[in-house]
Amino acid sequence: MFNIVEKRRWYYAFSGIVLLICIGFMVFSAIDTGQPFRLSIDFQGGAIYEFQFDEPGATEDSIRGVFESFGEDNPIIQQLGDEEDYRWSVRVNFAEDQSSQEILTALEELAQLEEENESVEQVSPTIGREVTRAALLAVLAASVVITGFIVIAFRKVPNALRYGLCAIAAMTHDVLVVLGIAALFGFLLGWEVDALFLTAVLTVVGFSVQDSIVVFDRIRENIPKHIGEPYETIVNRSIWETIHRSLATQLNAFFIMIAILLFGGDSIRQFIAVLFIGLLSGTYSSIFVAVPLLVSWEKGQIPFLKGDENIAAQPAEA
Amino acid sequence: MRSHYQWLIVIVLLAAFCLWVALPETDGIELDFDSDGEVDFSFSVSESLGLDIVGGQRVLLRADIPEDAYTAADLEEAANNVSRRVNGLGLSEATVQVQGSTRILVELPGVTDEEEARRTIQQTAQLEFVNFSGVDSGTISLYEGQPVLTSQQVEIEQQRQALLEQQGGEADTAGGSDEAASDEAELTEVEGQAIAAIDTLFAVAGRMLPAETEQLEPLTRGGQPFETVMTGDGLSAAVAQTDGVSWFIEFELTGEGGDVFGPFTAASIGQPMAIVLDGILISAPTIQARLDTGGVITGGFSEDEAKQLALQLRSGALPIPLSVESFSKVGATLGQESVNLSIRAGAVGIVVVLSFMLFYYRVPGLAADGALIVFILLNLALFKLIPVTLTLPAITGFLISVGTAVDGNILIFERLKEELRDGKNLDDALDAGFDRAWTSIRDSNLSTIIICGILFLFGQTPGASIVSGFAITLALGLILNLFTAIIVTRTFLYIIVKGLFHDTIDQRRWLLGT
Predict the structure, then answer these.
(1) Cα first-last separation, chain B
(2) Which of B59, B115, B415, B461 best probes binding to A when mutated, by most A CB atoms within 10 angstroms?
(3) Which 8-state DSSP code applies to residue B131?
(4) Domain limits of chain A?
């Protein structure tokens, strides 16, 4: 049985580099745009117009002209899909009584619009602030509740809090990866962080903890079964015993997500991509971050945290 | 073994029921046991699709005045008015809800005319009949479209101020000794605020009118407000009518309205009277005769304007001016296209998952596939029974839950293989697989269910409502999965392995994926 846990310094180094790169993307984005990732109108307020022309004729400049004639100073204009789709997305500031119909009617003069394919979203800055506040609260609540949940679920295992904190470390790892990816894609493809993005992040948190718990649960079961074995061996055994499950489960989730990425609509693709990367990171981190951290901690290898070398040698109280 | 067959019957019946409910054409059933023509038992289900799928408009309105200047009942009344107006447009599917203490959410599925929707919803529609006696009728037509200061507007503002005072007073009763001293100062303050509030009122009304009217000073009678004789409350009915040339509104008066309007018109024959809507003069006819039961309002309306105003007058004025805080509009085909794509993607994904389970886990995989199909049917049926409003994120949440639903089975089957490798016989290994995997399945699913709870709460914020659908369907899937992954899979697997083909399978372990 290959000793996964033994090589933990390599995983820490790998994860460390990945996290540094991810944080680098966010810092880079923060320097470039003032935000660690592009925030959507959900959080900032603003308006997005998406429309599709039936025929060629409209250019970025002519579209800009239309929006500027309505007093929108800095429209952010993007073409969506293929060149021949003539599909556009324009983001402007929130103007309280700007009727989208007037703007769309003006756009109609550039080229025939596909009326059934229009979508408009206007969000006031007040709503944006409320969503931001609720989002921060949700993240905070999720961290607290999940830690509490793990501590309760593992209360019969020695050092329950330790399991909770290691799962949280893995979870933080996954969240940072997802945020870094958001920063990168924001820079490359103009992706924006919206309410659905936060949903994806929290869902990643849920599944990340779910993955960690499956391995932890096996450790919990193996401790009394293999009294006398070093903790590291028990942990390593538990990883191997659950790795098929981790991979098979992951694979099935990926089948669905890849199908949606390939065949699903545009509007949900970004959400699924974030979820996909997050789940990948979640499976990795449960095996290569959460569990090795448990061993490092137990051996007293984490600075400032006291370990106890002989925990597994003592009869477990469970 | 008998209990497994009993479970099988339950599961098959349940699955059949769910399949029936989930069929698109099922809308319920009505039974008449004793054939007396009366329905003894009725059960109806319906599919509920979100705006992002059927297309339509969603408008979040906010009270345009400070929160302590109106009561919860005012907001409720405003929502009822909006609701009556929206229904008057013939939109039975529309929903109007009060959200929190400042907002009203209006959802209009299938509506495409944005101008009409906005105006119908947002216009305050405070109608006033104003005493214009003495105003030179020769110049009066020049004032049409201009703001007018009336006694009613001042009074409304004073009431709001009083409410404000009252609430402020409750807050500092302990230290409120010098209130009397500042009475006079307050009065002027109230007047000042009245003007400010009227400005808001104009601002609200002004949106509906050509831009040039917005900046005008309100008309006054030498600095004093004009006297409001009667408001829209005095009307019992209002209908748009045409004489073939122009459109006007024919109204009938309530008893009380007649008691006020009759004597006033009798005393002012030959004098002009102003009809003011949301602070704007819409017409100023000369009173020709005593009006006790009704009359007409002219104002150079177009057909649409006349119909809309009549509708608003019938529904009553909004007690609170409302402003649009968020607005979204989705074209009907856009949503339908996304759904079709999602369904196609989901079908492909599900087929791949079913095949993977079958090829990788063989006979147990077959049982898991059966359980997964039951799982999908249960979900689809519950979407209609609860009902869950299906939005694009909600459908995605469901698909993700399908992808992760097999996790429970995988945990069990991996354990089964492990126990077999350890040399246990088939029956014991099967039991151990189900027993031991339970805590793992329960604890791991719970963490995501908890997250769904938090997401659902997050989705209660008006700007993030899109999140709720995802949280609901994902959580529902995870909870149902606790039942299907354990009980349904176990029933299928025990019947196949222990009941029907025990020896065949025991002799050919590859059938178990080992």
Answers:
(1) 25
(2) B461
(3) E
(4) 5-37+127-298, 46-123
Q: What is d(CA A96, CA B211) in angstroms, rounded to the nearest whole number?
A: 15
Q: Do A127 and B325 touch (CB under 8 A)?
A: yes
Q: What is the pLDDT of residue B164?
A: 67
Who's near B223: CB < 8 A, 6+ residues apart?
none
Assess contact for B283 and B298: CB atoms under 8 A: yes
The Cα–Cα gap between A157 and A142 comes to 23
The SS3 of residue B43 is: strand
pLDDT at B506: 77
Q: How far is CA B157 from the centre of its chain?
A: 30
Q: Has residue A63 got a pLDDT over 80?
A: yes
Tell me how far CA of residue A262 lies from CA of A268, A270, B330, B434, in angstroms: 11, 12, 23, 36
pTM, two decimals, is: 0.81
What pLDDT is recorded for position B205? 42
Q: What number is the ipTM of this complex?
A: 0.89
Measured between beta carbons, the chain A residues lying within 8 angstroms of B113 are 101
Q: Where are the CATH 3.30.70.3400 domain residues in chain B? A: 51-122+326-330
B454/A209 touch (CB, cutoff 8 Å), yes or no: no
Can you say whether residue B96 is alpha, beta or left, with left for phi > 0 and alpha for psi between -120 and 50 degrees?
beta
- The answer to whether the CB atoms of B325 and A126 lie below 8 A apart is yes
Answer yes or no: is pLDDT of B246 > 90: no
Q: Closest residue of A to B118, CA-based? A: A99
- CB–CB of B153/B279 below 8 Å? yes
Q: What is the CATH number of domain A5-37+127-298?
A: 1.20.1640.10
| Among B residues 126-155, those touching chain A with beta carbons less than 8 Å apart | none
**3-state per-residue secondary structure call for B382-420:** HHHHCCCCECHHHHHHHHHHHHHHHHHHHHHHHHHHHHH
Interface test with B, best of A150, A199, A242, A266 (most B CBs within 10 A): A199
Q: What would be the CATH architecture of the domain defined by B2-44+331-512?
A: Up-down Bundle (1.20)
The matching CATH number, chosen from 3.40.190.10, 1.10.287.1490, 3.40.190.170, 3.30.70.3400, for A46-123 is 3.30.70.3400
Which of B53, B208, B327 is most worth mutating to test chain A (most A CB atoms within 10 A of its CB)? B327
Q: Would the CB atoms of B463 and A195 count as touching at under 8 Å?
A: yes
Which residue is closest to A100 within chain B, CA to CA? B114
Q: Which of A105-119, A215-229, B114-128 has the highest mean pLDDT?
A: A215-229
First to last CA, chain A: 27
**What is the CATH architecture assignment of B51-122+326-330?**
2-Layer Sandwich (3.30)
Q: Using omega within 30 degrees of 0 as the cis cutoff, is the peptide bond preceding B387 cis?
A: yes
Share of chain A above pLDDT 90, in %: 37
